[in-house]
Amino acid sequence: MPGPSKPGPLSSFLRFVVCGGGVGLLAGAAVPLLGTAMPWALANALITIASTLLCTELHALFTFGTGRRPGLREHLQSAGSATAAYLVTSAAMLMLHAVQPSPTLLREQVVYLTASGLAGIGRFLVLRLFVFAERKKEGEPAPAITVPTATTPTHSRGALSPLSPLSPLSAADAVNVLRTGAQRPAYAPMLPSVA
Questions:
Q1: Alpha carbons 194 and 188: distance in angstroms, whole number
Q2: CB 115: neighbour CB atoms within 10 A?
Q3: Residues in the chain with pLDDT values less than 70
Q4: What is the distance between the alpha carbons of residues 58 and 52, in angstroms, rounded to a whole number?
Q5: Are 47 and 27 spatial neighbours (Cβ–Cβ below 8 Å)?
Q6: Do the beta carbons of residue 35 and residue 28 sit within 8 Å?
Q7: Is the distance from CB of 19 to CB of 58 less than 8 angstroms?
Q8: Dihedral of alpha carbons 60, 65, 69, 73, sign
Q9: Phi, psi of 127 (to 5 degrees)
């Protein structure tokens, strides 16, 4: 029975943006609400963990169409890629403030959104190519590779070569091969016509 069809790169990327953006909007609304009941830093940490777990589940099932829920390895690798994206955006903002101590709000937004977009593209590539890429199961044999065998005609009657695996070797052909060796076509270079 064929498995679920995997989305292509463009479809996966659009799904990645929708899932990540949707969960990001929900998280942005949930942090201030939860922040009324506990310290804001704790609320932010809890929502960040929950949203990362939810995104990993959505990416496995919907974005990349693996057909199964993610395991611990996928959750840890996804969390690692989210942490790397966070570090990239933080570094971009620190560099902006080092270069320009009092940037305008517009400049801050441009730098943050650019860094966030680049980090998001990088995270998408890591998730697609490594975290949720299809893996060969251990103990599963490698697919067989078939190599075509060339056949060369040796008789004027158009039969296959006695050495070809496609034709049975008769006693007369075997004696002929032993006496003269396998027949190979003569090299004839192609010359351009002058007509």
A1: 17
A2: 19
A3: 1-4, 136-195
A4: 10
A5: yes
A6: no
A7: yes
A8: negative
A9: -65, -45
User: Is the CB of residue 183 less than 8 Å from the CB of residue 161?
Assistant: yes
Nearest of 55, 24, 45, 28 to residue 124 by alpha carbon: 55
Rounded Cα–Cα distance for residues 16 and 191 (Å): 58
* Dist CA 53 CA 78 (whole Å): 9
Joined together, the tokens standing for residue 155 give: 């008789």
Token pair in block for residue 1? 């029975």
Please give the Cα distance from 81 to 24 (Å, whole number).
16
Residue-wise pLDDT for 51-94, tens only, equals: 999 999 999 999 998 989 999 999 999 999 999 998 998 899 99
Within 10 A of 118 (CB to CB), how many other CB atoms are there?
14
Total Cβ atoms within 10 A of residue 21: 11
Write down the pLDDT at residue 138: 58
> With contact defined as beta carbons under 8 Å apart, do 16 and 61 qualify?
no
3-class DSSP string for 79-100 = HHHHHHHHHHHHHHHHHHHHHC
Residue with tokens 């496995």: 60
Strand runs (DSSP E) across 67-174, as ranges?
none
Residue 14 is predicted with a pLDDT of 95
